[in-house]
């Protein structure tokens, strides 16, 4: 008689229920796995055989046929070890099959029968819950992360024997995790870089505050040593805390990528991904035969920082255009197409010219006009059109550098204003399925970015003077909406639009 054990398969960020069918055939002892297994799944034969023997159970002296259904989906990874072992032990009469109904099993086995950590456990459990599974067995090290999923019972086990004994004589203790407790732990974190340590640059600080409040993209252009990189590092300290939905979404991404810390099963901070200019296009967007998340997905709900952005290859920068517009990336391969979220803030910095001193009052630029134009041409018009805030960051004057009496705002003070603006946006868009002003579509811009007659006149002049495209016009309205939110104003007024134009058209 064939038995069925439930597990799951991950495609992209989502998991799908998979049945492990096990049958014992009167033939020469062997193990055969079918159902499009990859190398790691095929190698489960030896891990399972040794784990069962070393857990003091006998391995059947028959041919073991294992089918992973549905058979047309590629099976990858090591999470099939535990369900295969349970299926074999059910067929051998060690466990009663009825006791495992509505249960799912996930875990990699060591040769001694202990359970090892697997990636993507939260995605696995969420997908199984949606399929009606009530109970899931996972490695103990994955139990806290798995229990972030509500309305499903999670049992963490150290060994295969622990799982078997649960159905025979010694039930395991269910694992429960407080999501709110973990989220609260990320609110009062101390940051290494704080805006109170940044001298001068009030305009740039204000621009970064607006970017954080509305989720806008920002480009800083300035001479070497003007503080661009330092302010970028400080930017993480003014980002608002994660919403629960954002935290769970990020946890799925980092768990699948194998980047989630075992002692912290929930992502509690917005990611800040600083990428080196030698990164490849696939490293940025994601890819591979089995597509994995790239840097733009790892920066989801957070920041992707590109220092010296013009040093990146042109083809790498151009692949950012579609994710910046749509907030997601579709990776297409011959056998499958995978969609990953990529709603990130692009924070970039660059010099004004190859030598870095164009427009500097202290040091003269040595670049030719041809060199300057070639340098700047690495950033295409369509890409710049997607960057909401573009500012110049000048060199500090001698007085600003020597001023020890300047009292700068702390990141804590700025962050409180950012959090207040985000709360306003969350309430305003609670029925729209978005969280920030930067996510507004053209339809929603018309609905939520209304202006009075005097403000419309300013916008008309800006359209004529700067030859604004439709996309650029909408982005100025979104930016104005954020400035108004920081000002606690329901109406977008002239002063909000003029400030937005100032940051957009330098």
Number of strands: 18
Estimated radius of gyration: 28 Å
**Tally of alpha and pi helices:** 22
Q: Give me the secondary-structure category.
A: alpha/beta
The strands making up the biggest β-sheet line up spatially as: 11-14-17-10-18
- C-alpha end-to-end distance: 74 Å
* Assembly state: single chain
Taken as a percent bin, the fraction of beta residues is: 15-25%
Principal-axes shape call = elongated
> Spans of 5+ residues with little confidence (pLDDT < 50)?
none
- Helical content stands at 25-40%
Main β-sheet description: 5 strands, parallel
Average pLDDT over all residues: 91
Topology:
Blueprint: E1 3-11, E2 14-25, E3 30-34, H1 39-42, H2 44-54, E4 63-69, H3 81-91, E5 103-105, E6 108-109, E7 115-116, H4 121-130, E8 135-139, H5 143-146, E9 153-157, H6 160-168, H7 179-185, H8 202-214, E10 218-222, H9 228-235, H10 244-256, E11 272-275, H11 281-285, E12 286-287, E13 292-293, H12 295-298, E14 303-307, H13 314-318, H14 321-326, E15 328-332, E16 337-341, E17 345-350, H15 369-376, H16 381-385, E18 389-393, H17 398-402, H18 411-428, H19 442-448, H20 453-466, H21 470-486, H22 494-504
Parallel strand pairs: 3-4, 5-8, 8-9, 10-17, 10-18, 11-14, 14-17
Antiparallel strand pairs: 1-2, 2-4, 6-7, 12-13, 15-16
3D structure, described in words:
This protein has 506 residues and is α/β, with parallel strands linked by helices. It has helices spanning 39-42, 44-54, 81-91, 121-130, 143-146, 160-168, 179-185, 202-214, 228-235, 244-256, 281-285, 295-298, 314-318, 321-326, 369-376, 381-385, 398-402, 411-428, 442-448, 453-466, 470-486, 494-504, and strands at residues 3-11, 14-25, 30-34, 63-69, 103-105, 108-109, 115-116, 135-139, 153-157, 218-222, 272-275, 286-287, 292-293, 303-307, 328-332, 337-341, 345-350, 389-393. The strands form six sheets. It has a five-stranded parallel sheet with strand order 11-14-17-10-18. β8, α5 (143-146) and β9 (153-157) form a beta-alpha-beta unit. α8 (202-214) runs parallel beside α18, α8 (202-214) crosses α21 and α21 (470-486) crosses α22 (494-504). The protein is elongated, with a radius of gyration of 28 Å.
């Amino acid at each position: 008689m064939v038995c069925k054990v439930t597990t799951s398969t991950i495609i992209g960020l989502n998991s799908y229920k998979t049945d492990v069918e096990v049958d014992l055939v009167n033939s020469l002892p062997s193990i055969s796995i079918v159902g499009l297994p990859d190398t790691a799944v095929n190698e489960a034969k030896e891990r399972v055989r040794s784990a069962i023997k070393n857990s003091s159970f006998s391995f059947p002296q028959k041919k073991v046929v294992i089918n992973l259904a549905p058979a047309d989906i590629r099976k990858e990874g090591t999470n099939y070890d535990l369900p295969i072992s349970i299926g074999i032990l059910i067929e051998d009469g060690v466990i009663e099959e009825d006791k495992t109904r509505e249960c799912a099993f996930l875990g990699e086995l060591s040769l001694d029968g202990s359970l090892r950590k697997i990636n993507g456990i939260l995605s696995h459990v969420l997908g199984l819950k949606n399929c009606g599974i009530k109970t899931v067995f996972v490695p103990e090290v994955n139990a806290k992360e798995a229990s972030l999923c509500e309305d499903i019972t999670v049992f963490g086990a150290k060994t295969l024997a622990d799982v078997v004994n649960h159905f025979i004589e010694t039930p395991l203790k269910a694992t429960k995790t407080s999501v709110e407790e973990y989220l609260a732990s990320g609110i009062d974190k101390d940051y290494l870089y704080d805006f109170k340590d940044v001298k001068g640059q009030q305009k740039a600080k204000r621009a970064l505050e607006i970017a954080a409040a509305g989720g806008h993209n920002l480009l800083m252009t300035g001479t070497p040593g003007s503080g661009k990189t330092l302010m970028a590092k400080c930017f993480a300290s003014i980002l608002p805390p994660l919403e629960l939905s954002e935290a769970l979404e990020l946890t799925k991404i980092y768990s699948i990528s194998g980047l989630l810390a075992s002692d912290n099963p929930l992502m509690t901070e917005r990611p800040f991904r600083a990428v080196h200019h030698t990164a490849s296009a696939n490293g940025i967007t994601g890819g591979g035969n089995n597509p994995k998340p790239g840097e733009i997905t790892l920066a989801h709900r957070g920041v992707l920082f590109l220092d010296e952005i013009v040093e990146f290859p042109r083809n790498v920068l151009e692949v950012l255009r579609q994710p910046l517009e749509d907030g997601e990336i579709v990776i297409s391969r011959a056998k499958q197409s995978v969609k990953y979220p990529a709603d990130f803030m692009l924070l970039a910095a660059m010099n004004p010219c190859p030598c870095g001193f164009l427009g500097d009052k202290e040091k003269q630029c040595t670049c030719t006009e041809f060199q300057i134009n070639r340098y700047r041409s690495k950033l295409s018009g369509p890409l710049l059109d997607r960057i909401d805030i573009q500012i110049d960051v000048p060199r500090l004057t001698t007085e600003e550098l020597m001023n020890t009496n300047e009292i700068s705002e702390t990141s804590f003070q700025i962050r409180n204003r950012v959090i207040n603006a985000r709360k306003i946006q969350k309430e305003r868009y609670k029925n729209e399925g978005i969280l920030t002003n930067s996510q507004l579509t053209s339809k929603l811009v018309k609905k939520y970015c209304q202006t009075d007659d005097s403000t419309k006149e300013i916008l008309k002049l800006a359209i004529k003077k700067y030859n604004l495209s439709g996309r650029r016009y909408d982005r100025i309205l979104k930016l104005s909406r954020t400035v108004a939110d920081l000002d606690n104003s329901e109406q977008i007024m002239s002063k909000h639009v003029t400030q937005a134009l100032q940051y957009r058209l330098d």
